Amino acid sequence: MQHSRFVHLHVHSEYSLLDGACRLASLIARARELRMPALALTDHGFMGGALEFYQKAMADGIKPIIGQEMYVAPGSRLDKKVAGIKDASFHLLLLAKDLQGYQNLLTLSSAAHLEGFYYRPRIDKELLASHSRGLVGASACLKGEIAHLILKGDVKGAERVSGEYRDIFGGGDFYLELHNHGLANPRRRCRKPSASSPRR
Predict the structure, then answer these.
(1) Taking the model in full, what pTM does it have?
(2) Domain range holding 73?
């Protein structure tokens, strides 16, 4: 039986409290039904489902990819003076590609809860840069920093942040995510200003 070439890499489960509705057993059964060779689990700010996901995926012959959708502080994770929950963090997807990446994911997740917790468990770019080995990063959803800047009309800022993440992960291990959930904002186009266009 031929495998599908498509693999879901951004997946929330019942362990993403108040956010995900997919139960792991059903999720893995559906991936098997669609002949997917692998599947990721990237719950929000939490890795409580990683062991159960790993065991069930392996038992069903599906390669488990362990990850997490992290919350990244806009500055230092130790700074807890922003106005409120909406300004306290951006989203960033992390996937472990090897054992070192998995260990770094655990380290980042623990630090997010023990050091950076402010509304949500947060890391920062400094901590990420020191524990990025073995990890693949992706720009996440509309609540990612890059999408946030694009929606504000700050394409230059989005390019700058993309470069920061490219440098943190290195070796082609940072990707821009494209989503189409039928919402208006993800369809917004980024146009470079023409020579006659006023610059802000």
Answers:
(1) 0.88
(2) 24-180
